[in-house]
Amino acid sequence: MTATSPLDRLRELCLRMPEATERISHGEPAWFVRKAPQFATLSDHHHDDRLAFWAAAPAGAQSDWVARDPERFFVPPYVGGRGWIGVYLDRPQSWDDIADIVEDAYRTVAPRKLLARLDESRDR
Q1: Up-side HSE of residue 46: CA atoms within 13 Å toward CB?
Q2: Residue 69: Cβ within 10 Å count
């Protein structure tokens, strides 16, 4: 990975997903499968004084991550009730964990055809 800022690193991970796009949503960079649905968004001091991102998550993942380390993970406002996970980027993080969260977010909302493409790229 060549990016150095948290946003650059997050962007690189998100845009690796098949047909992922980026645009501004609610004043923040956000990542979508094609034009929709959204699978991740930056939260740059928008709702508090923290740098973070929010990501869609499969059932049960939010509570698992938050229980594992509430200093690194949280339930975000607005979308937390739908199971999304919040990840602080202003704390030391494992970028392997973040890569897993981004991929899970994508897999949570992407259509089967694109998931098959993602799986094919992993098998090469």
Answers
A1: 16
A2: 14
- Rounded Cα distance, 76 and 87, in Å: 9
Residue 122: CA count within 13 A, CB half-sphere? 9
Tens-digit pLDDT profile for residues 39-87: 999 998 766 788 999 999 999 999 999 999 999 999 999 999 999 999 9
C-alpha dihedral sign at 98, 30, 47, 61? negative
CA distance 47 to 1: 29
Residues 30, 42: contact at Cβ < 8 Å?
A: yes
Q: What is the pTM of this model?
A: 0.93
Helix axes 95-109, 6-15, angle to 10 degrees: 40
Q: How much is the pLDDT for 2?
A: 56
